[in-house]
């Protein structure tokens, strides 16, 4: 018989019991075993990315990776552990139970301690309430709560695989479905619908994509047969949306620097069935602070946010560096000789990444023959009034629309397009 293994440290011991080879784990025990370890792996990526300010993906993105088996349990463990992390750290420090071995598996320890303290109604939680003079567990984490941001579930139909009416009919078997009044291939489902395992999602017939995000490719409105450049394109939702809008005809050049994000991009393209992802239009969605989607990404659970209770957690220095990169990216996009239309978008609510970037490049854009156009004229929320022409810019509100996006559409003036066409014709004559 295998004796229980115990990690010895000062104070109470942290024990892990290994079952005998002849004693099988029950289904529930096996599920909990794998869920804890998968949650620990996700938690490690989240915390490391938060510390470096270079996240590989949001909590949801990491949890819903195909390699994670028990997604529901893993997601719950990660979110709840993050929510209670300040208390968990306090407990570990007071108990002094971490030795060098367990520090190498710190995220797994966090998960296990969460389960011990808060996962079940046991005396440890009661003792902590008495010590902190709190009546309920919720009182201990009140400072780390965020307002409810529940919103409808938006689903974009991949018209390369399925028409909108068929998607409405199929999804309508389980849910109440409405068509969006602005983005033609977007559907609205009730809040809380979990579609991650739905067959239409897993086979690429529909994509789980928010309204604000879906408006970006629709604002560019590429035509079938065009060549389109999608800069900074991972994870690829906007890329395959472009392919659908172009009816699979033409070419899309998708650019992404990060190797891990390239894998995600390739998987999205494969799932969508788009074959024309290889320039007359450029969709530029560069790296940004993500301040407009922080709630949806559950950033309020991250240590960098809770440490300052949400105050300026992006930092002015980081925002300045991001804005400098965004300006360079937009300047480069405008320099393509044959480009006729450029969409610049962010999921940020910060002026420095939005209006300021466009304003700084507007003189250059005008010199190239571009002008600010108005995407979705019926949309009420426009750019901040910080320069003449900002009324052409589009904003979505993080409270009213549940996500904060920014869209600027730069389109060539008609006379510029004619001049460019004549110039190209003259050049061809000389060849």
Q: The biggest beta sheet, please?
A: 7 strands, mixed
- Number of helical stretches of at least 4 residues: 17
Assigned CATH class of the largest domain:
Alpha Beta
Can you tell me the CATH architecture of the largest domain?
A: 3-Layer(aba) Sandwich
What portion of the residues fall into strands of 2 or more residues?
Answer: 5-15%
Shape verdict: globular
Number of strands: 13
- Distance between the amino and carboxyl termini: 86 Å
H-E string:
EEHHHHHHHHEHEEHEHEHEHEHHEHEEEH
- Kindly give the count of domains: 3
Helix and strand content put the structural class at alpha+beta
Radius of gyration: 25 Å
**Unreliable residue runs:** 1-22, 143-148, 309-313, 427-431
Overall mean pLDDT score?
A: 79
Summarize the amount of helix as a percent range.
40-55%
Explain how this protein is built.
With 431 residues, the protein is of the alpha+beta class. The chain folds into three domains: 25-144; 150-208, Alpha-Beta Plaits (2-Layer Sandwich); 209-417, Vaccinia Virus protein VP39 (Rossmann fold), CATH 3.40.50.150. The chain has 17 helices and 13 strands. The chain has helices at 27-52, 59-63, 71-83, 85-95, 100-103, 106-119, 123-131, 137-140, 164-171, 199-202, 211-220, 237-245, 259-272, 303-306, 316-334, 355-367, 414-430; strands at 5-7, 14-16, 153-157, 178-179, 186-189, 206-208, 227-231, 251-254, 281-284, 341-346, 370-373, 394-395, 406-412. The strands form three sheets. Strands 7, 8, 9, 10, 11, 12 and 13 form a seven-stranded mixed sheet that branches. α3 (71-83) crosses α6 (106-119). It starts with a strand and ends with a helix. The model is unreliable at 1-22, 143-148, 309-313 and 427-431 (pLDDT under 50).
